[in-house]
Amino acid sequence: MATIGNTEYFKGIGEITYEGKASDNPLAYKFYNPEQIVAGKSMREHFKFAMAYWHTLCGTGGDPFGPGTKNFPWATKNDPIEAAREKADAAFEFITKMGFDYYCFHDYDLVDEADSLAESEKRVLHMVDYLKEKMKASGVKLLWGTANLFSHPRYMNGAASNPNFDVVARAGAQLKIALDATMELNGENYVFWGGREGYMSLLNTDMKLEQDNIGRFMRMARDYARSQGFTGTFFIEPKPMEPSKHQYDFDAATSINFIREQGLEKDFKLNIEVNHATLAQHTFQHELQVAANAGMLGSIDANRGDYQNGWDTDQFPNNVLETAEAMLVFLKSGGLQGGGINFDAKTRRNSTDLEDIFIAHIGGADTFARGLLVADAVINNSSYEELLDNRYASFNSGKGLDFVRGSLSLTDLHDYAKLAGEPEQRSGKQELFENILNQYL
Length: 441
Description:
Structural class: alpha/beta
Shape: globular
Number of strands: 12
Low-confidence stretches: none
Helix content: 40-55%
Number of helices: 16
Strand content: 5-15%
Radius of gyration: 24 Å
Order of helices and strands: EEHEHHEHHEHEEHEEHEHHEHEHHHHH
Mean pLDDT: 96
């Protein structure tokens, strides 16, 4: 596939293609075959894989103990616009070589924030025009956009939840610019991640006012975008803590309650991240199931955490068992509603070769493809579904069905239990379910 730009940044790396599991080529897909049909859709349609602008192009490997280790060839210009255009050239070269169809961004991933709001807006709009050219030439689409309302010191006490209205207003202005950029680029969705929307101490926090202000902020965003013709879905991305001690979008269940309480349920769904589920002491499978049960399984941030570390390490996914369990939920709930799968993951600080970025994304795509294939085989070729149905068979007829239909009273339960006597003990067969899944890995 041709490079989209005047400079080739990833020299020596061509189009990444599917070669199958027998291939020993590190720059080839072993399981992700974009056109392979699984459960009635191609893998390409199921996943809608997207490159995350921030980690892939902006993350140089810096951490609290040292500066970045990665010398990107597109980070060479001092002028912010020239630097941003270089970064976009590298982005679209990478996306097209990977064979992905989508990307996603924060506003100031695209171009550095300026000293004034007016100049920042001018820079973002310039990059929107440039990205439109890149998208037209490549066919790549925007999965979602968002605003970075957490990094700048002005947001140290939050953005929409800030106790200072002037900061809330500034956040609203930045949100409008990011929404305008997303809509101009025909973005399919828009994401809210409340990195600072929480508290460090309840002693100095009016929780109700802060949460209600976030709701007002999101309704303003929805109303403005709809008035401009935006038909996409808004996503909230749950995370329990970090950088705040407690974030208001703690997990899927908390976020769903917030969405309903604030009257956002017709427009908002969830963007579930694997590592955020881990931090909330949940599994990825659990968070997907909670979202799916509420009809709010919108999109996925693909990564993983380090289970010995208590922070958001954003490693690339490689746990096939974890992903297969998640793909069971994915398939049984009918897939994602509006979103796709973006690789919100970064290569490690000591992975400094440019090819490592490709290898990491290839491994992530293959992990999700393997998980999908395993889940599909378990559903269609094993006794898994029958065993699950049988476990709840008592609700399919007789009094159990009456209970499900809501036609029994508490007195009815009392009378039935007196006649039925002690219930039969029935095994949950957990080990059998686990063995069936392992059989197909």
